[in-house]
Amino acid sequence: MSKFVFLIPLLPLIGFLINGLGRNLLSRTAVVLIGCGTLISSFILSAILFKEILSKGIATGVITYFDFINTAGLDIKFAFQVDQLSVLFLLIINGIGSLIHIYSAAYMHDETVPHYARYFAYLNLFVFSMLLLVLGANFVVMFIGWEGVGLCSYLLIGFWFKNANYNNAAKKAFVMNRIGDLGFLLAIFWMLSQFGTVAYLDLFPKASSAPVTVLTGITMLLFIGAMGKSAQIPLYTWLPDAMAGPTPVSALIHAATMVTAGIYMIARSNVLYSLAPISQNVVAIIGISTALLAATIALKQNDIKKILAYSTVSQLGLMFLALGVGAYGAGVFHVMTHAFFKALLFLGAGSVIHAMHHEQDITKMGGLKKLLPITHITFLIGCLAISGIPPFAGFFSKDEILIAALEKNPIYYMLGILTSLMTAFYMFRLYFLTFAGEFRGTAKQRDHLHESPAAMTWPLRILALFSIVGGLIGIPSVLLNDSNWLATYLSPVISAHENEHPYVHLSHGAELALMIGLVVVIAGVIYSAMKRYAQATVVLESNDEGVSKFLSNKWYVDELYNAIIVKPINFTTSFLSRIVDNKIIDGLVNGIGRALQYSSRQLRLLQSGQVGSYVLIMVISIIIFFIFQLFWKF
Amino acid sequence: MFAAFDNFPSLLIWLPLVAGVLSFFIKKEGAPRNISLLSSILSLAIVIASLLFSGQQHAGLNQVSYIWLPDLGSSFGFILDGLTKILCLLTAIVFPLVLLITNKDEYKNSNAFYGLLMLTQCGLMGVFMATDALVFYFFWELALIPVYFLSSIWGGDKRIKATFKFFIYTFIGSLFLLIGILYLYLQTPHQSFNLAAFYNLRLSAPEQHWLFFLFFIAFAIKMPIFPFHTWQPEAYEQAPRPVTMIMSSIMVKMGVFGLIRWLLPLFPLAVKDYNTGIILLITVGMIYVSLIAIYQDSIKRLIAYSSIAHIGLMAAGIFSLKEIALQGVILQMFNHGINIVALWIAADFLERQTGVTEISQLGGVAQKAPKLTVFLVIAAMANIALPLTNAFVGEFTIFNGLYQFNPWLAALAGVSIILSAVYTLNMIKNIFYGEVVPATTEVKDIGRTHILVFSIITLLVFVIGIYPSPIFKIIQESTALVLNKYGSL
Amino acid sequence: MPINYYILLSVALFSIGIVGVLTRRNAIIIFMCIEIMLNAVNVLLVAFSKMHHLRAFVADRATTVGTDAQLFVFFIMVVAAAEVTVGLAIIVMLYRNIHSVDINFLNRLKH
To answer: What is the DSSP letter of A237?
Structure first.
């Protein structure tokens, strides 16, 4: 089977090429068949691979295809690594990717055929890059996929390219990703100069020989890369703006897959992070701060996609918290469950937006429960899952993260709880405002309200199913002994989470008590959200003053960045261009030219045309020469 | 005397020369153009043949030396080694592409125009292949002077000022170069201009220091390196289209090439002393020109400034004195040459369709010309070194060497990567996306010739970006030699 | 006769020539002054030639030392003759065109 691994990324690439090149020739059906078909085939291949890994229980296999760069002491192979971690991600990417492709077939139906094909081509290219990212057997191949997803994200955010705001959002995403990518790139160079290799299997065994400072530096730089891609402070502002893209794109890229690339990268290099405690702390602190910050912002947003976007940022923060406290398995677990319920929520939101004719403001929705039954049920499941209500998927993964955080440092735990509570609140605020109460939109919108076609609801059902049962692969030992299948599965790739000096060591009883307590509190929060929003006919909240204004304006971070980065750069560019380059440097050059012209104008006066004066000058010069010759012996 | 055609270098010199002279004397409509195109395609075939017949057993095919001025100790010597092959390949690929794309253009006195263009090609090939300092200098000027006439006769409205500036700048550089070459010549034991004799010179440190600056300024102006760069945007703006393409794609490589073939092996002591300072200057310059590029409203000036930043990176890579960076630079010279031609072709196409070169007056071209958009986005992505495009391989290796030299400088230079994304995406956004504006309502999509040329470029972009090993094999021939004097220092 | 006299004569002639060239405005007179200067040189050449030749002649009767200077004299005379023909022709043409040989009128070279 491993002979065919190359097909897994190659198939989406072929789909991209066919749809991209033939976008004016293919019919709509052909486009869908190619777009979805390649991806589903790729998913089947991944599933076979997964089965093989399960049955054989093999550790890892690196498949080298060709030398990418092999010269002057640099040896980088184009190679794939098939192991538990990468195959798990293959399943997530291909699985959710396929569902979203199918969903898109209906969602994007209004586009003309060339744009429709372009859309599928981009999606396929994105999946290809993402597969490259997780399959790469070294950091350079990962980087190729890494920048590739950045590019696709750029292309898809700006998919409706007539809109200038969308294009700006696309540009912002790309540039912010690039800032992170520079960190990643420098980390690669550092690894190359320290270890002489970037292949995982060669590098990780050597890691412990390197000084801690070096490892800290490398891991910090890698983390800068992860900050960009996974939208962490300070590089998170692109993700909410990225909601400009079509909603399935938001589901695929900005919730389920691309943003998890940073998590994947850190989980992949867990060996390095485990050796660099300072970096781990930084990751944890940034993670939890981002989680909190984004959660507070989400409390006051009214755009359905913006809320989900900030919730994504917040959940990503939690994942980084898990990585930071050394619970890599928990991080990956949350990536997976989050992929299910966040894709579900986004697709559900897409279904709502579709039904509401591109209305995204939840204050103008309400009462959609009856009109969109499937969307409603699945969305509710998503909300329950993200809020951490058992037995939905989010409960198990979030719980694992929180317990790990508690063992590391109770403050992380407290902040994590706070984030969870806020998550439950804003998600149910969203839910109740959208689905409960009376319809608050225009009459015209009400007439058009309809449940989405099957191609859109079936992916919702499947994702809902996984949001319910997805958590069962990682049941904590408190509830059922030896049942954390995921941890066992990942153990060959991820060094087991062993906290030698935990701040708090929990007995099973205490852990269980905390778990139950948390669930009860969350339930209480949901109840209060229901009280407040379920019957709201008109939304009375005013966001005009105090904390709410601050939160609804997203902490003014965009304005801050504008003031301290964008404006100064704009000023500098214009200053350099107009003053320094044009006036000073070019002025200097032109000045030399002008000086020469001026002196030539002055010297020209000597040429009077009077032969007599010429001769006089000649004679005087000759006399001077004679004097020099005679009296100035040299 | 020189006219033995049993080897590749002399064919590459004589073919464009003969074609150029022929063009001069044929007044028939269209004939000069076809002669030039034919000759440039033949040149490409010759270069490809030389790639096939490389290695020790074919040394006679790739290296020649004819008696030229025995009394002066100068011989007409050429070599096709790894470095040269890449540059000749670039020249040989770019010329047919440029001639193809401008095939429909009409020029007054087209016989002279194409004749001068072919002379330029001859000069460029000579510069790259020369193994004799006098021959090198001769071709260095031969490449410069036709371009001066081409720009000042067939250029834009402000051509006189721009070309004059260009000429003065590069000519001053050339004079420095000449002084340096003559000094070295006088130092050789048997008064020879031979490159090998120059390499064997044992120069004292003070001599190396001032000679270093003579050569460095000449090459720095040609590339150009900040702060010698102000001639370039104007010259690119005013020169006729094919000339701009050739200048930015190939001629700037003369400077980079000069650094590798002449400066580095000749003055190791001085290079060692100055390289940190020069890399710092270049890095600051890269950020400086990138910032300026962000501000530019003219597509041509934007491309020009972006090119200065990219060339700066190459120069920085050379001075890092790491073999990996040097190989990256040689590869990147090729990549940059290919990519920038694509950018120029697109800019030129837009200018012809809309009559506008200001980015702010364009918009919505993607709706009118989707094919052009696809190709330009690919070229732009290659320009900002996205992985799997050719420039990524080049810049990755250069940055790697630069990092080995000094991590902080590499990080500083890396800032220009981010800035390049900013201005490139700005350009794409403002030209191609958004609503159609008055200037672009009449735009039509590219025709067959453009598709052909763009496809060739795109193919090269991806082939080199995905599988660069064959090119590295060619490059490896010459890089170790360049640096072998530094091993003992 | 001592060589000094010849030198003095030559210097005197040369100075007369220079002063003439510098002070006079008539082109023909300037021309004559130039001729005087040339002839001053000729005188000097002949004088030195004779002197050197005599000194060598005492030792060796077949010597040709010094005779080459007289060759120069012939050269100068031929060149001067050529110059006169061309120069006078120009002056004649000038006179025909502007009816003057005053060099202060002839400053159009500066344009």
So the answer is: T
Supply the pLDDT for residue A468: 85
Residue B390 lies in a domain: yes
Closest residue, chain A, to B325 (C-alpha): A72
Domains and CATH numbers, chain C: 3-110 (1.10.287.3510)
Which residue from A59, A54, A63 is spatially nearest to A2, judged by alpha carbons? A63
Asked if residue B332 is part of any domain, the answer here is yes
What is the count of structural domains for chain B?
1
Nearest CA in chain A to B429: A167
Complex ipTM: 0.91
B396–A161 C-beta distance less than 8 A: no
Q: What is the mean pLDDT of residues A276-282?
A: 88
Residue B381, in any domain of the structure: yes
Touching, A vs C (3+ Cβ pairs under 8 A): yes
Cβ contact, residue pair B396, A168, below 8 Å:
no
Q: Which residues of B touch A146 (CB under 8 A)?
A: 387
Q: Which residues pair with B65 in a beta bridge?
A: B77
For an interface test with A, the pick among B469, B473, B481 (most A C-beta atoms closer than 10 Å) comes out as B469
Whether A contacts B, i.e. 3 or more CB pairs less than 8 A apart, is yes
Q: What percent of chain A has pLDDT over 90?
A: 9
Q: What is the pLDDT of residue B398?
A: 92
Q: How far apart are CA A100 and CA A126, in angstroms?
A: 12
Q: Does residue B460 lie within any of the structural domains? A: yes
Alpha-carbon span B167 to B145, nearest angstrom: 8
Q: Which residues of A touch C110 (CB under 8 A)?
A: 607-609
Residues in C closer than 8 angstroms to A612, CB to CB, are: 22, 25, 103-104
- CA distances (Å), origin C89, targets A281, A561, A579, C28, C32: 102, 86, 62, 11, 14
Helices B133-154 + B110-129 axis angle, to 10: 150
Q: For residue A394, what pLDDT is reported?
A: 83
Contact A174 B425 (CB under 8 A): yes
Mean pLDDT for A41-63 is 81
pTM over 0.90: no
